[in-house]
């Protein structure tokens, strides 16, 4: 019972600090306050990571995932202008960090019915992180056009490659060096797509969403290919067909009006 209360309390406190940190950043528009909150939250997440490593022997790096997610929420909240959406994002931040920290105890569970949903949740969280970071990159291209485009392209590709590595480490218990070639392939493909998207008249949120959608499908099929079963095309044809159709419909009926 005491162990449960400790885990619940740590998750609740972490979720409160992260969401309240976002609130303070938008309530007090000050550069010193912004960086002070960033440093404070990073220290708190580091302490939580050390606590879970020592207590539960967590294999997956919950610390890095927490840092990446916190940065994603901060970056996306800066880009939003509607107060109601910003407050909704703060609520999402609270829920996400509570579930992320509380579920860390189950990351080493050998019961697949417990571990698989948690792993899938973290994977989708990392996909959201990639979208948030790329939205920030596209916004910076618009706000700071002085820097050459290849600088932003390399930055965006590094984000995709890094998060791809985090996702694959959830499924493959291997060293990063053995996946380096495939990560480089992801980087090259995404760099080409990133360059193409610069010629589309989309906003930064829409561009990041469409590009992240393509990246998600790319890393997903490469992960299937690297698995022991490989890509089972009979099961994936419907998935590809639905995604392709939705992608085209979104471009035709939604994106064209934005």
TrEMBL record:
User: Which spans are transmembrane here?
Assistant: 5-23, 29-53, 60-79, 85-102, 122-144, 150-172, 179-197, 203-226, 238-257
Q: Which domain of life is it from?
A: Bacteria
Keyword set includes Membrane: yes
* Keywords on record: Membrane, Transmembrane, Transmembrane helix
Q: Is Transmembrane given among the entry's keywords?
A: yes
Could you identify this protein by its name?
Answer: Uncharacterized protein
